[in-house]
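PROTOCOL LOG
Step 1. Enter all chains and additional molecules of the complex.
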Amino acid sequence: MTETNIHAALLVIGDEILSGRTKDKNIGYIAEFLTNIGIDMKEVRVVPDEMDDIVDALNALRKRYAYVFTTGGIGPTHDDITADAVARALGVELYEDQRIIDLMLQRLKPEDLNESRRRMARIPRGAEHVANPISKVPGFKIENVIVMAGVPSIMQAMLDDVAPKLTTGARMLMETIEAAGIPEGPYAAALGDIAKAHPRTIIGSYPQFGEGRFRNQIVVRSKDGAALQAAVEAIGEMLKGMAPGGR
Amino acid sequence: MTETNIHAALLVIGDEILSGRTKDKNIGYIAEFLTNIGIDMKEVRVVPDEMDDIVDALNALRKRYAYVFTTGGIGPTHDDITADAVARALGVELYEDQRIIDLMLQRLKPEDLNESRRRMARIPRGAEHVANPISKVPGFKIENVIVMAGVPSIMQAMLDDVAPKLTTGARMLMETIEAAGIPEGPYAAALGDIAKAHPRTIIGSYPQFGEGRFRNQIVVRSKDGAALQAAVEAIGEMLKGMAPGGR
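Step 2. Run joint prediction.
Step 3. Record the structure below.
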C-alpha cells in the first residue's frame, strides 16, 4: 500500500521576524493546518525584505516542493516586495488587476486610491486571487506558489480560501503517548529498535522541562492506521514496568 | 563611518515543528537576543530530522554567515541526529567526550549510563562545550556552528553561556513610531521617499489587525544613532496633520 505524499514549504518574508521585533505566529498555525488536510510541510525559511533573498528562496523551494506558501510583504509600503519577487522568480510580468481595484473601491473613496495603494492591485500575470474577507485586497496563487498576508487573522482567512483548491495527500495520523515521569535515557535504545521494526511510522521523543523535571512524550506518526496502532502498542509494552523517576 | 556587521542564521531541527505539533518558541527568542548583542539574524530554516536535509542546510548556511545556531536533536533517542549531521557536514569524526560522561555521572548512577545516554556524550572532534546548567549535557560550538538544545529553557541557558565568546558587531538600534489610527495607504508613498532619503536606515511599516481595525507601527532601524534620529523626525513630520480613520 502506498500513500500519496504532498510536500510543501513555507517562506516567511520579513525583517521584523528576523530582528525579533515581531514573534511569528504563522509557522505553527500553517504547519498544523496543512498536516490536518494532508499536506506535509517539509521546510520553512525566513528571509528578509530583500529582493535577491526572496527570489533565491522562492526558486529553491518551488522546484523542490508541490507547494510553496509565503507570508508577508504584500502591503502598500516600500518594503512590501513579495509580488515583485514572485513575478521575477517566475519570469512573468506584474500587472494592475482591475478586479482588485474594484475590491479596494468597496472600502475606499476613489480619491483615496493613491499610487501606493494601487501597488497592492499588482499581481503576476496568470495568478488567481486568494480571497481576503477581512481587508479585501486578495493574496494570490500562481503555479505552485501561494502568496498570503503576514497579519495572522488575514493569513488564516486566506488559507481557508485556498485550501479547497489544493491537491492533498494521505493525512498524517498521530498518536501521543505520555511517558509519565520516565526519562528518555532508559527507553531510548528500545524505542530506536521499535522505530526500526516499524518503518512505516515516524517515532519521536519530546522532552519538556517544567517544574524542575522532565516530562517526556513519545509521538508516533504514520499515514497507515494499522501501522500506527502496532507501533503504539509496542511502545506501550516497552514502557510497562519502567519506573518513573529521575534515573 | 562604517559599522561591523555580523550576520547569523538559525537552523531549527525537528519534525515536531514542521508537523505543527510543537509550536516553536526559539526563533523569536534567539532573534531578539542576537539583535540585542549586535548579531544580525539574516535567515532561519526549519528542517526535519533527516540527515541529508540537516547536512545540506548546515553547509549552505555555515558558508554564508558568520555564525549558524541550531536548536533541537541532541537528546538520547534515535531521532536525535544533530551531532552526527554537524560532524558529517564539517568532515570531522564524532568521539565520546569523557568530560561529558563525567557531567552525566553527576546526575546518574553508573549503571544507568546506558548506550543511548552515552550517545549524548558524542561531539565532533574539535568542538568546545556550551554549558547546560539545567540538565548538564552540554551543547557545543565547532567552527562557526553552535549546537543547542530544543527545549526552550535549556536553549536559553546555552545562549547565555556561548554569547560572551562570540564576535559581535554594531548593535542595531530601533525606534517604533505609532501611526495611531492612520492607515498605511495615505503615508506609503511619503514613507518610501523617506526610506530612499535615509539610506543608512531600514524602515518598515507593520499593520496589526485587532478589534476590527488596523493599527500601524512604523519601525526605523539603523546602526547609526544620528541617522536613526533623522529618519524618525522625518516620519514624525510626515504623520503630522494626517487624519486618523479608515481612509
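Step 4. Note key features.
Residues 213 and 246 of chain B are 8 Å apart (CA to CA).
Chain B touches chain A through 75 residues (CB under 8 Å).
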